[in-house]
Amino acid sequence: MNVNLILYLSAYLIAGIPFGYLLAKKFAGVDIKHAGSGNIGATNVLRVVKEKDPKLAKKLGAATLFLDAVKGIVIILIAKMLGAPESVLWTLAVLSVVGHCFSAFLMFEGGKGVATGFGVLLVMMPIPALIAIAVWLGASKGLKISSLSSLIGLVAFIIASYLLYPEVPGIGSHAPIWIIAIIIFYKHIPNIVRLFKREEAKV
Q1: CA end-to-end span of the chain, whole Å?
Q2: Where does the chain cross the membrane (predicted)?
Q3: What are the residue boundaries of the structural domains of the chain, listed by start?
Q4: CA distance 196 to 109
Q5: What is the pTM of this model?
């Protein structure tokens, strides 16, 4: 089997592991797919488990955030060690976000792709990603609305990527960044609707 195909399949499947769902089920006895917003990400883990055990909620939320970010990074770093070209690395980045958002383990449902997206972008474009994470953290503190803060951070990344890399090294196109952004925005449509209705919950 072609090495790239193995990497692509691995990226999709590893990114599809629903850590938030597994951690909440194992340590809090909660099925987060049927609680809170129904999302498997860190915010919903934090929000749902908080009702039972605030201390545990913080630990599980942080663990989910970390694992969701790292699972996208692992295969890209392996591919880098194998000397894969930039085009392959960017494909792996996109497939990691696809895997998380449309997991084979959850009947092709999944999270919103923020932690996994920022994880892979941190490897592929460290400076724009760090700028975006700083903007995201600032927005989170000020607004206390996770979805809106995430989307503001994503917009900050797109702007920073164009300013710092008018031509993306190795591929010459921002297409993979736009694919990741579109997937994340698509997964946030229910949140965007709630934001317009002023019904989006604060964290």
Answers
A1: 46
A2: 6-24, 60-82, 88-108, 120-139, 145-165, 177-196
A3: 3-196
A4: 24
A5: 0.93
